């Protein structure tokens, strides 16, 4: 390749062309384009090295391998771990095969996932919920009993719900790459694989709270926020504070004047922009600790925007004759006494009573 | 056609000021005509009912006061998921969730329950969207003819769980026919 390696490669995703650097994966190229053709991802996390390739949600069809070898790839490929080639043509949302595969993958992920969204704290910002809303079937065909685990306590800050876990390994990679001593991991194999600390140890690392943000489902949630509020009733604000351990840039989830939860800021793919430390996340629930920058914006169709009338509302102008809305001038004077000074005899009557 | 001569109902009659004849001034014919109309009304279908004894049948989509249901074992169904409050166009519903303690398993069906559940009946428009949104079939709008009882205080219209949750006796009665089978 030599010289060609330095030149940008042209990739076509759903008919949209984009030039990307060598080494870019199809998913990253699709995210550069944005919009509907971005494949969903449950395990891939751009900030974590080595993530991806496990959940198979991001399957795409490669209809033309490259300029040099234009044969299509025989099977659907996982876009998060497949590199782009020059002249590659990819079908994401435009392919019937891909949509069918995503539907099946969603069904597989939901086999062991409990349908307890009304109880789950992640509801409203859950990737699996979004995935099944977009790509899932309306009805389940699974009649067998779902796999369950004994509840396990992993410390005062993080709540583990193993039943909801889809084994994406994101939290394991977070602990590996952000903290210096990982105490939890995946035990057992296959259907029995389980996120756990080896001998019921508490996870208390300084950056362990990021596992909550990284988790695509409600398997790891904030214990200090447990059952406090549904996320769509909270008002999210961007805020920051001076923190010597992390960047200190967070999203505050307020209810009235109370800070109910602190999370890192997440982008449109629900990936955190910058990881935050546990002190910012769990210990500062007082508004005096934070500098509030302003309300945080979410995608237009996010449930978090529900019942928030933050749009600019223009006053309604009713085009009609002046007196129809206001009434006659003399009638108005009768009603609004304050605007019209009382006559002396009226004042007398008011003072002494009309006896 | 001008507005003066237009008849929207088709029954417009011109009123004239002409002098009555002698026969007309006796009003005999007019009285007889009027009595005939009165007599005719005796034989038409009655539009009123004898209210306290008789009541009209309710529409099949009638929506009365809310009730938070219990399941077959008498446990509260509501898990405080907030979907009723989210769907409520009048924003009448507020709630607060709490975690179920191990010794409360006979009281609440799910891990989470509503410790406070309030409906502001002054705001409620009885649209039934909460019932439609509920994923646990917990809130229902009953066929009760009593919608909201009058009161003199605004606070009295905020109905809490003591007024909304299905009484235990009712839950026991509901399971009885099943036990007989």
Automatic annotation (TrEMBL), chain B:
Reaction(s) the record says it catalyses: a quinone + NADH + 5 H(+)(in) = a quinol + NAD(+) + 4 H(+)(out)
Keywords: 4Fe-4S, Cell membrane, Iron, Iron-sulfur, Membrane, Metal-binding, NAD, Quinone, Repeat, Translocase, Transmembrane, Transmembrane helix, Ubiquinone
Localization: Cell membrane
Pfam family, one: Fer4_7
PANTHER family on file: NADH DEHYDROGENASE [UBIQUINONE] IRON-SULFUR PROTEIN 8, MITOCHONDRIAL, NADH DEHYDROGENASE UBIQUINONE IRON-SULFUR PROTEIN 8, MITOCHONDRIAL
Quaternary data: NDH-1 is composed of 14 different subunits. Subunits NuoA, H, J, K, L, M, N constitute the membrane sector of the complex.
Lipid bilayer topology: Peripheral membrane protein
Binding site for [4Fe-4S] cluster 2: 88, 124, 127, 130
GO molecular function, one term: iron ion binding
Protein name listed in UniProt: NADH-quinone oxidoreductase subunit I
Protein origin, superkingdom: Bacteria
Top-level class of the enzyme under EC nomenclature: translocase
Cofactor info, note text: Binds 2 [4Fe-4S] clusters per subunit.
Gene: nuoI
Enzyme Commission numbers on file: 7.1.1.-
Function of the protein: NDH-1 shuttles electrons from NADH, via FMN and iron-sulfur (Fe-S) centers, to quinones in the respiratory chain. The immediate electron acceptor for the enzyme in this species is believed to be ubiquinone. Couples the redox reaction to proton translocation (for every two electrons transferred, four hydrogen ions are translocated across the cytoplasmic membrane), and thus conserves the redox energy in a proton gradient.
Species of provenance: Flavobacterium akiainvivens
Cofactor: [4Fe-4S] cluster
GO biological process: aerobic respiration
